[in-house]
Amino acid sequence: MIIKAFVRRFIDYINNDPLAPIDEFFATTYTYHNPSLPHVKDLSTLKEFNTATYGAFPDIHFTLEDMVAEGDRWFTEPLPEELIRESSWGSQQPVST
To answer: How far is CA 24 from each of CA 10, 20, 43, 45, 80, rounded to the nearest angstrom?
Structure first.
């Protein structure tokens, strides 16, 4: 599916350079829908959130565990690899990247 390839390309893009411009991946009318982050509403506030997140966690790297896509709509929950490793294996030891 084209949309799945697009989403995978975006995750690879931010994993390689998390502060690179993301404009090519989002429409100017983009609206963010996540009730846990009510202050992130559009592309501008998403960029601010990303800058703060990657500033606090500079080594963060995302993995796509599962994705649902149909037409031009998709849902995925990209998870930080460190979280996946710790929850999957029960490890309490630091994970090197």
So the answer is: 10, 10, 11, 16, 23
